[in-house]
Design a protein that fits this description.
globular, 12 helices, eight-stranded mixed beta sheet, 8 strands, ProC C-terminal domain-like fold, binds NADP nicotinamide-adenine-dinucleotide phosphate, alpha/beta, 279 residues, 12% strand, Rossmann fold
Length: 279
């Protein structure tokens, strides 16, 4: 089945919808055939100007004509969206929810026994360098292929068999660009204390990360071996690593991830409590 021939609807014209449309456009996908909805006509105006997509504020009509529906709204908007629109899914389109922390079981409670995939992309989809993790253990093979082919246009894809893994990847790759940018900026700030201008440091640091990550992907050596190759005894690299180790950088990362995962679970429970109170 050709993806180009499938009617696709995005619910929500926010950040992630824009990043995905940008990646699809880069990949040469005909974005002018995609229908995007939002509650805010101004956001729809902006997104159609940027990506030449079709737009509407009528969610129900947009769902009813779709073969694939991408749910790109905030997790906290999902319940009220479902209350208003669940009956529009009666024709069983393939639903792909990119919402963090809404379990598949809950999505089925909202939308019924239709094919649903949970996907966790990241903003690198905007340059077709994303890493999208999927969870949908019961999905038909043909629909599995459709979801995979669609997100493969925007980067690499990976399927997990355990929903907790998807939540773990939400911390690692979904949120990843945020802390990577933070780390890059911290290194750029540190470079300035050595007298390198911010612009020059940014250029150098981006090339450093790009070169080092490409080398690590192409090399058959482990990251530890590569690190040892540039860490001569009593040398400059050793000094940097020693200082970072004294600051317990690895332990700090483990703690940050543990806390972020717990935050995700906490938000999930809060959402479930809110739903129970509304019932
Ligand atoms: N940002 C990331 O890096 C990232 C990465 C992976 C996954 N995600 C997931 O992606 C989803 C979208 O995130 P985002 O950052 O793109 O959010 P966002 O910028 O807030 O975009 C969501 C859009 O949907 C609109 N909306 C809300 N209810 C709607 C409804 N009933 N019908 C149509 N449109 C509706 C919102 O309007 P209002 O603003 O008026 O509510 C907003 O314009 C979230 O569930 C998030 O967990 C995000």
């Amino acid at each position: 089945m050709s993806l180009n021939a499938l009617p696709i609807t995005f619910i929500g014209a926010g950040n992630m919808a824009s990043h995905m449309l940008s990646g699809l456009q880069r990949a040469g996908f005909p974005t002018n055939a995609i229908l995007v909805t939002d509650t805010d006509p101004e956001k729809l105006q902006a997104i159609t100007e940027q990506f030449a997509v079709q737009t509407t504020t009528d969610n129900r009509a947009a769902i009813q004509q779709a073969a694939i529906v991408i749910l790109a709204i905030k997790p906290q908007s999902m319940h009220s969206f479902a209350i208003q629109n669940s009956t529009a899914f009666a024709h069983s389109p393939l639903v792909i929810s990119i919402a963090a922390g809404i379990p598949l079981e809950k999505l089925h409670q909202f939308f019924g026994a239709i094919p649903i995939v949970r996907a966790m992309p990241n903003i690198c989809v905007s340059i077709a360098e994303g890493n999208t993790i999927f969870f949908a253990p019961q999905l038909e093979v043909s629909l599995h292929k459709v979801a995979d082919a669609f997100f493969s246009l925007m980067g690499i894809t990976q399927w997990v068999l355990d929903e907790e893994q998807l939540d773990a990847y939400t911390v690692l790759t979904g949120a990843g660009p945020g802390y990577v940018f933070f780390i890059l900026q911290s290194i750029i700030d540190a470079a300035q204390t050595l007298g390198i201008s911010e612009a020059d440091a940014k250029k150098a640091v981006l090339q450093l990360f790009s070169g080092a990550t490409q080398l690590a992907s192409l090399s058959s050596s482990s990251l530890r071996t590569l690190q040892q190759q540039v860490t001569s005894k009593k040398g400059v690299t050793e000094q940097v690593i020693e200082t970072l180790n004294k600051g317990h950088m690895s332990a700090l990362f483990a703690l940050a991830f543990e806390k972020a995962y717990a935050r995700g679970q906490q938000l999930q429970h809060l959402m479930e409590d809110e739903l129970k109170n509304k019932e």
